[in-house]
Amino acid sequence: MTRRSGKGSPVIKRLYVDNYKSLVNFELQLTELTLLLGPNGVGKTAVLDVMFGVRRLLSGQAKVTDTDAFPTSTLTRWQKRDRQVFEIDVTLGEDELRYRLEVEHERTTRKARVVLERLEAKGRPLFVFEKTEERAEVRLFRDNHSAGPVFGGDWSESALARVPPAHDNTRLTRFLDFMRKVIVCGMYPASFQTESSTEDSVLERDARNFAAWYRHVLLERPELVPEFTKALQEVIDGFRGIRMERVGLDTRALMVAFDQSGERYELRLDEISDGQRALIALYSLVRLAAGQGYSLFLDEPDNYIALAEIQPWLIELADACGGEVPQAVLCSHHPELIDYLGGDRGLVLKRESSGSTVVRPSSELAVEGGLRLSEVIARGWER
Asked: How far apart are alpha carbons 55 and 244 in whole angstroms?
């Protein structure tokens, strides 16, 4: 399996958030592989929630006030300001793009609207949506930044998501394609649905649609199945393979094959253990999604699996990042992840006395007396 594609892999380099839960004037610098550390309640999941909300908006799947986007309840409680700001800096090959979204809320009515949405390349616009007192207006720009069409927009959603691809807006289209393939997931294996009647291109927040997503990636890269199967055979006792069984006109059920003492048998996805489901999903993200442009933001990927099972997957992921997998951002308390990645890939989040979240590199933590970084974190000495 080819791992690295070399220079130019797409990556989210920076995330800026203001007035969202505990994230106030908050900035995060990201690399190909980043581990977010810190105790519960410091804002790690809030970072993933922001990425999920932005991706939903840019996919045209959500209104700004939807519960999985930016409803008024996500405003920072101790702030009196009614405007939220989000910025994402993305490098796509030679292109360095910045996306900015500003959402204004009315606390009494719990309504919200987009007042600014902008995509630019090194300060020069590719797209601008702006809400004024008189109207909401979209201004499109061509790849060379010359002015294009001007038309009205809907402030309840992302106007950028409604722009169709064209020969002169390829930079904008590439940005949308990249953001729509950001997977934000905190797996809950008990919710995995065994049967699917469609192929889903994006995994849901809790991975409940894993079977439908598996159908999609299987169609895209069937040649990767042998190596995927071999990797799972090394970590799941008796595992032999996966197949999609027809149970209706368009419906398929995900079946898992095992071999016990020479006897082969099959179980439905909902008949195997949570840990086995989690392992299948995690290896799918690295092995089957390879080369399809998916960036991963994973919340506690080590849940449900044993200590000895997490390291082989972690090595696979680290090898793939920056190549077959453009980027991965993990939130975890697991000592194996902390010690493997924390030294040079870790960012420690903490809450200040004001309640706001701040961040610093884990490399700045003092690790003395032969202690591992995970032991420092476990003792709370990073605070």
From this structure: 29
